[in-house]
Amino acid sequence: MDGTSGTADVNGARLWYELAGDGPPLALLHAGIADARMWDAQVEHFARRFRVLRYDARGYGRSDFPAGPFARHDDLHGLLRHLGIERVALVGCSMGGATAIDFALTHPEMVTALVLVAPGLGGYQWSEAMQAFDAEEEAALERGDLEAAIEMNVCFWVDGPRRTPEQVDPAVRESVRAMMRDASTSTDGRPVRLDPPAIDRLDEIAASTLVIAGEEDVADMAAVADALVAGIAGARRVTLPGAAHLPNMERPEAFNRAVIDFLPALPA
Prior knowledge:
Elements: E1 3-10, E2 13-20, E3 25-29, H1 40-46, E4 51-55, E5 68-70, H2 72-83, E6 88-93, H3 95-106, E7 111-117, H4 128-142, H5 146-159, H6 170-181, E8 189-191, E9 208-214, H7 219-231, E10 236-240, H8 247-250, H9 252-262
Parallel strand pairs: 3-4, 3-6, 5-8, 6-7, 7-9, 9-10
Antiparallel strand pairs: 1-2, 2-4
């Protein structure tokens, strides 16, 4: 696969990106427990039809994490402007899905389609179980036990609530561990979200939308998927069995097929 990679200075941060293929632009936005490498099984497949952009969000992988407030959807906008991309289809997983939603609300004229994969959602009220997990993870990081925090995330998000580690592809688990080790643990960068939050503005989204859920994901993510399908006019949902929070990594063939089948003949 032929492609180009580089870095772009965007809103005070240096972001790593990669471009591959020709055709209508398609951007891949990674999860908060991963970086752009989570799309390794998608890029070559999608690049046969699209000009595929993937990048490391600030604080992840090969991108830096300067101090101060920032908005992830503003970083995406700055990167697209740097690359001369005026309209784009967005495929976002988890944190990347929340970024895609916020971007679609802020720059609706730039979005040709949305694929929201186990997405976050600004303003959603997380369950007590999710809040307890967040508190336990934060406590591990505060005592400097990065490996414990990583293992907690792998068990919670990659395995899911109903599977044992032995039931999950060990290569997927190790890949997530490696990506999490390369993420910044600094708290100097402060992400900010839309106000009013996205959950109160879903009816503003006009782009064709597909929501992809993993059958083995935590209950909160199924509830978010329900909210998105109910709130975004015409949104459709696909649930992939045998996958939790990163269905593109666990079920790449089924995931790729679902995305290609959904995306319309996008204008170049």
